[in-house]
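tl;dr need the bound structure. longer version: we got a ligand (uracil) that a collaborator sent over and nobodys looked at where it sits. i said id run it. heres the input, straight from their email, havent touched it
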Amino acid sequence: MQDLPSDRDALQALLDFHVEAGVDLALDETPHNRFAEPKAEAAKPQAPKAPPAQPAPSPRALPKAAASAPEEVASLAREQARHAQSLEELEAILAGFDGCALKFSAKNLAFADGNPEGRVMLVGEAPGADEDRIGKPFMGRSGQLLDRMLATIGLDRSQVYVANIVPWRPPGNRTPTPQEIAICKPFIARQIELASPEFLLCLGGPAAQNLLGVKDGILRTRGRWFTYKADDGREIKALPTLHPAYLLRQPLQKRLGWRDFQALRRALDGRD
Ligand code: URA
């Protein structure tokens, strides 16, 4: 194993480097040098083959529901989400739901932010590190850009409701898997139904594809109005737009995001 630097600043820089690279989850108490292990194994005298050892029970072993077949868990999620009669109940049910493995690596459930009575609901993909730490969606740099974009059309978080299709942070900010999304989908569907906004803004491709059933990428669907059909039959006007994290990486595309926000403003003003 490489020697660790001994001074505090160098250690901090090493830690920052790992966090920047997305390595922000410690899975074990002590690091393993995987390069050295095979050599050490080869150097050992060959003992007669023992029967395979039973894996030691992990303290972070997933509860049974998270380890079941995804379709079974998704149907359990649908059943549980249907029971919620208010957003508070839904959050409590989700907090007690063990069917999505992301819950066990996340620090917090990031259920929602803003005003559920607002006319607009915005739905993103999944929480990142800041959202996971604080327990609310869109708290980091993407959230700050989102707030600035909302401000350009005279809105702030006291007037809009914000959530994600997946409410737990995927480790290292990876994209949630189709299974994770399928398991969480009944909850976001019920959340939209209970908040019952007039307008739904889908932030980024995964939100647009999973909520609106569109196959095209976000650059094709953004700026076009769709209809979101809630499970109770209600129809909500929905607009896909570029995700603020994408706009941070591609600042030239902000003009497209700005156009979409202008379209939302016009719709809110009944000028469509
Ligand atoms: N990106 C998202 O999609 N959601 C958040 O809450 C933060 C970043």
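gonna send this back to them w/ a short note. Confidence is low (pLDDT under 50) at residues 40-45, 47-61.
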